[in-house]
Amino acid sequence: MDERRTVKVSKYLSKHLRHQPERIGLTLDEAGWVEIDTLIAAAAAHGFRFTREELDHVVAANDKQRFAIEGSRIRASQGHSIDVDLGLPPATPPPCLYHGTVAHSLDAIRAEGLRPMNRHDVHLSPDRETATRVGARRGRPVVLCVDADAMHRDGHVFHVSANGVWLTKAVPPEYLRFPESD
């Protein structure tokens, strides 16, 4: 499977498993799962065909591990804008987590902190390198350090998805450390 096809199938899966399952007639269960055969049939009925082998390749090859397969079901690991309960237990975060963004967002972040925007949670990276890649998707990246240790001590709840992305409802500005030269 070539890289362009892999990306195309991955984006299709993200759109319909994270944001708009109803567009192709899918109904996800409360935890975001759907039967793989149902997904493949619904996609085909709406003009986008892919095989189980292609699906397995996309899931295995995705460096961010965006999707999880359990038995005959699939779901997105996180990033939903629709109502799902991933069933992730609370977890104790490392002292610092990271968030990649771009310079033009910094004034709003300084004022309001990190908000989930159209998602359920704020996504945080366990390392600076990952956060840099995330920020670079929108331009020249700026990496913020989140004082996750202090947040956790102050009662904020964290979860970690199967692919290592840390999730929390919001990050108030007082827990953020900005780079010196932003």
Automatic annotation (TrEMBL):
GO biological process: tRNA splicing, via endonucleolytic cleavage and ligation
UniProt-recorded name of the protein: Probable RNA 2'-phosphotransferase
Molecular function terms, GO-annotated: NAD+ poly-ADP-ribosyltransferase activity; tRNA 2'-phosphotransferase activity
Pfam families: PTS_2-RNA
Family: Belongs to the KptA/TPT1 family.
Gene3D superfamilies the UniProt entry points to: 3.20.170.30, RNA 2'-phosphotransferase, Tpt1/KptA family, N-terminal domain
UniProt organism field: Streptomyces regalis
NCBIfam families per the UniProt record, alphabetical: PRK00819.1-4
Domain of life: Bacteria
Keywords: NAD, Transferase
Biological function: Removes the 2'-phosphate from RNA via an intermediate in which the phosphate is ADP-ribosylated by NAD followed by a presumed transesterification to release the RNA and generate ADP-ribose 1''-2''-cyclic phosphate (APPR>P). May function as an ADP-ribosylase.
Gene: kptA
Origin organism lineage: Bacteria, Bacillati, Actinomycetota, Actinomycetes, Kitasatosporales
Enzyme class: transferase
